[in-house]
Structure formats: C-alpha cells, structure tokens
Write a structure and sequence with these properties.
The protein has 280 residues and is an alpha/beta fold. The chain has two domains: 2-89 and 260-278, NAD(P)-binding Rossmann-like Domain (Rossmann fold, 3-Layer(aba) Sandwich), CATH 3.40.50; 91-251, Rossmann fold (3-Layer(aba) Sandwich). Helices cover 36% and strands 19% of the residues. It has eleven helices and twelve strands. It has helices spanning 11-20, 49-52, 73-79, 91-106, 127-135, 153-158, 166-172, 192-197, 215-223, 237-243, 260-278, and strands at residues 2-6, 22-26, 38-41, 60-63, 82-84, 119-123, 142-146, 161-163, 175-178, 202-206, 227-232, 249-251. α8 (192-197) links the parallel β9 (175-178) and β10. α1 runs parallel beside α11 (260-278) and α4 (91-106) crosses α5. The chain is elongated, with a radius of gyration of 20 Å.
Length: 280
C-alpha cells in the first residue's frame, strides 16, 4: 500500500511504516494530485475538502494526534474513506504539562502564590481533566469542574471534585484550566463575558485549543489587570505578539502532548491500527 506521511512522527512509527508499506514522507502538501492509498498526518496539517480532493485513490486517513478538528471527517465519511485515530493517547502528557504550567505561573512572580487552599476550576472533565484532578490531590486545593456530560458519582468522590455549572466554575475558581475538544459547540467557549465573570487576581491556563478562547477578550482582561497570571500552550501569533513580556504570562509552543511516552503512543497506536486494518 502506498502511504504518504505529511510531517514528522516518532521515529519508531516512521520505521514501522517504512517496513510495512510503500512509504513516502514530505514536509507539506504541494498543489498536485497524489496516488497514495493512505495518508498519515498530525494536527498541524489541514486536511479539508481541497486537500482530500488531491487524493483520488485514498482509502485511509490516519491522524497521529488526538484532536481531529484539522480534518473534514464528514467529507471523509461521505466519500467512504476510513479515518483512523486513537483518542486518549496524549492524556497523561497534557495533564502533566497542565500541572507544570499551574505551578510555574503561581511561582513566576514574587511573592509566590500557593496552590494550597485555592479553588481549581476545570473546564472539560473528560480524560485529561480527570487526570489533572488526580494529579493535584496532594496539594490541598478545592477542585470544581464543568462538563456537559453527566459524571459518575464514584469517580467524583475518588477525585474529590464537585461538578458545577459553567458560570459558577468561572466565578468561584482561583485558577481556571481548560480541557475541551474544539468543535462547533466549544469554539470561543471561554469568551469576553466569561472572563468578566472570573475573579480579579485569578489565573488562567489553556492547553486544549486556541480557538476555544475568545482571544480578544483574554487580551483585554489581561491588559486591564484581571489576571494574576496566564499560561498558554495554544494561542495565535497575534496574541503572543500583543502580550509577550507584558506581565505574568507564560507561553509554551503547543508541546503539552509531547511527553516522550505519550508522543510515541500517539504515533504508534494509529499506525498499528492502520496495519491491522489493511491486513484483514
């Protein structure tokens, strides 16, 4: 099977592809037609109608990322093209990076803020949100969370977490961290109105997607002094240009999912699934 990799994977995943398929690797798509039957990519590569139409023979699209907002999966379904992706492979890495950002932003300016006795508000209580809650158990903070999906009471008890509505989490939290997927329901979920509900002197963390935040609202409230600190792993170039160096703000370069073990799993598991599928 002719397989095209767009971008970079973990070296073990690239080796497996080269051993088991007729493998080609490119940095970016050119404006031409391709005859490959499988396309492998990550979240940095857009694969919408224009790109899909460049592959008349494609049977499989493999995403070695967790989010698939870069892919027109509805169009793939219409065309009978199978989308292969494995949710959850990056959860530990993103959760660890979130805790790293929380502790870093609390201690980025003196006098240091402490997590003990703070209220941590988690927006999105899926796999990553739950692991964040698990990892901060020993810090003596109160944990509240919002999610549209009803949660298992036994899990909430184990994680010492109270579910609240969206506005209540924003109002009560000293630290807000966002862990929602990007879709039509979550685009600009945390908007200017939401930021205005947050406490003066609060902290804001985002390791999900830049687009779930209304960035102008964040910029305005940061400049107005609402936040004691902001830490972002995902953001637009424009936001970084406007806020970098202006106060207690930390930027990391969309690396939350790049823990060595999680990154390997994130690349290997979808490739193994592809090979399993084509061998049937």
């Amino acid at each position: 099977m002719k397989t095209l990799l767009i971008g970079e994977l973990h070296k073990d995943a690239e080796l497996l592809l080269s051993e088991k398929t007729e493998f080609e690797k490119i940095a970016n798509l050119e404006e031409k037609q391709y005859d490959h039957e499988a396309v492998v990519l990550r979240t940095f590569t857009e694969f919408k109608e224009a790109q899909i139409n460049q592959f008349p023979n494609v049977k499989y699209v493999v995403s070695c990322s967790v989010g698939i907002d870069n892919i027109d999966w509805n169009l793939l379904k219409e065309k009978g093209i199978e989308l292969i992706f494995i949710p959850g492979t990056n959860t530990n890495s993103v959760a660890e990076h979130t805790v790293h950002l929380i502790l870093s932003i609390l201690r980025n300016q003196q006098p240091f803020a402490e997590l003990k006795d703070k209220t941590l508000g988690i927006i999105g209580f899926g796999a990553i949100g739950k692991i964040v809650a698990e990892k901060v158990q020993g810090f003596g903070c109160r944990i509240i969370a919002f999610d549209v999906i009803e949660q298992d009471p036994a899990v909430l008890q184990k994680l010492n977490t109270e579910m609240k509505d969206f506005d209540t989490v924003l109002r009560e939290a000293d630290i807000v961290t966002v862990h929602v997927p990007l879709n039509k329901h979550t685009k600009e979920l945390v908007n200017a109105t939401g930021f205005e509900r947050m406490k003066w002197g609060s902290f804001f963390i985002n390791t999900s997607r830049a687009e779930v935040v209304e960035e102008q609202g964040l910029i305005d409230d940061f400049n107005d002094g609402r936040f004691r600190g902001v830490a972002l792993d995902v953001y637009s170039d424009s936001l970084k240009e406007q806020l970098e160096g202006k106060g207690n703000i930390i930027f990391t370069e969309h690396v939350a999912a790049q823990g060595e073990d999680s990154f390997r799993n994130q690349c290997m598991k979808p490739i193994e699934k592809l090979l399993e599928t084509i061998s049937r």
